[in-house]
Structure formats: structure tokens, C-alpha cells
Amino acid sequence: MSAIPVIAIDGPSASGKGTVAARVAASLAWHYLDSGALYRLTALAALQRGLALDDEPALAALAAKLDVAFLEGMILLDGEDATETIRAEAIGEGASRVAVLPTVRTALLQRQRDFAHAPGLVADGRDMGSVVFPHAPLKIFLTASAEERANRRYKQLIAKGEKITLSQILQDIEQRDARDRARSVAPLQQLPDALLLDTTRLSIEQSVQFVLDHWRAVSAA
Ligand code: CDP
Ligand code: CDP
């Protein structure tokens, strides 16, 4: 087992996991893993190659060889900037479809664990605490109401010029969450050893402070 401390932050779509995890990592000067980006990159690479999103053997082979790089604020796929492309709602939907395939998940497992370097890692996704880093000393289940999450994602996508309505986003989010919770492998769930952080009425700063306070308590114990 790795001795590198990990803070695992899991939760549903658009709850603010990525924003909070990245800020906690910056505040502690730790590494950060956006595991959802790997599923989004797999979906994007599959669509670019014309692969069906249920062709499990082809997708697992693709995920195993995925040529990706996480640079300072930039994500490259096959050497091309994919930072913004993978944030489209259609790619999120594709990601949740490839994410139900067990061999795709296995193909991405070690790549995620390889992010754990000293002095520590903050990782966000759906199965950080259950599968990827089950021994993480601090696990957080970060959520918000579906309406609040749809509002947050709506503002994000509209600012990027995506043509989508709030009700379409709410429907997409609910469908994606249902698929993430219902799948047989690594479903989205609140683990018994995870702390619940409901951010519906919290600012980003309050959410970051919650995680930092709990990390201080855990590391002092
Ligand atoms: O990673 P995840 O899909 O869970 O969410 P995100 O991309 O980090 O956050 C979605 C949006 O919600 C971002 O624009 C955040 O700035 C915003 N947000 C917020 O308004 N209030 C919070 N407490 C947390 C996030
Ligand atoms: O930003 P948002 O929370 O909507 O999604 P994301 O974290 O970028 O993840 C996109 C999709 O990848 C999710 O809907 C999940 O189906 C899948 N995923 C997963 O299965 N396991 C993870 N650790 C991270 C993401």
C-alpha cells in the first residue's frame, strides 16, 4: 500500500468536486487527479476514431494506450489540446457510457494510482474512495441538490458558448447520476467511512475549508 496521503473526493456530476479538490490540492501544495478527465478523454478518443461506445474490447484497448498528458492547466490527447473539448456535455455523457465497462475501468486504474506522489494527492471522481484509493485517510462524499448542480453546470456551459437549456442539463445530470449509481462496477455511492459534504448552500471557500479542517484533524490524530 502506498504511504502517500490521499484525500478522496467523490460525488455526483457538477457538485463542485473538481473545483474544491483542485483548491484543496493547491492550498496543501499537493498533486491533483481529475479522474473524470480520463473517462472523458477515453470517450473523446473513441468518438474521434469512430468506435461505438459499447464496444468494450476496443475501448479497453484504447484506454490502455491512451496518449494523454496533464500539464499545468492543460490536458493533451495525442499531443493536441483537449482541455475545453472534453468539457462538452456530450463528452460527459459519452464518458458515463464508457465508464460502465469493467475492462475500461481496469485499464485506467494504474494510471490513476500513478498520480500519488509525495507530499500527497487530492483525487476526485466517483470511485476514488472505494476502488482507486481505498486506504485514503480522508474520504469525502461531496454533493448538492440536483437543481443546484444543474444551475452550476448551466452557468459553466453557457459561459463557454454551449447551446443548451437548464432543463436539458437537469435531465442529463439526472440520467448520468442514475447510470453512475446503477452500474455493477465501482458505482457512485456514499461509503460508510466517507464524510458527507452537502454544498447546496455553501460557497466554494466554505467547502474547501471543510475539507482542510477535516484533513488537519485526521493528520493530527
Ligand atoms: O467536478 P464537478 O463536476 O463535481 O463540479 P465542478 O466542475 O468543480 O463545479 C461545477 C461548477 O459549480 C463550477 O463552475 C464551480 O465554480 C461551481 N461551484 C459553485 O458555484 N459553488 C460551489 N460550492 C462549488 C462549485
Ligand atoms: O464533471 P462531472 O462531475 O459531470 O463528470 P466527471 O467527473 O468529469 O466524469 C465524467 C463521467 O466519468 C462520470 O459521469 C462518470 O460516469 C465517469 N467517472 C467514473 O465513472 N469514475 C470516476 N472516477 C470519474 C468519472
From TrEMBL:
GO annotation, cellular component aspect: cytosol
Reaction catalysis annotation: CMP + ATP = CDP + ADP; dCMP + ATP = dCDP + ADP
Domain Cytidylate kinase: 7-214
GO biological process, one term: nucleobase-containing small molecule interconversion
Top-level taxonomic group: Bacteria
Compartments it resides in: Cytoplasm
InterPro entries named among the record's database cross-references: Cytidylate_kin, Cytidylate_kinase_dom, P-loop_NTPase
EC assignment: 2.7.4.25
Binding site for ATP: 11-19
Matches recorded under PANTHER family: CYTIDYLATE KINASE (PTHR21299:SF2), CYTIDYLATE KINASE/PANTOATE-BETA-ALANINE LIGASE (PTHR21299)
Name of the featured protein: Cytidylate kinase
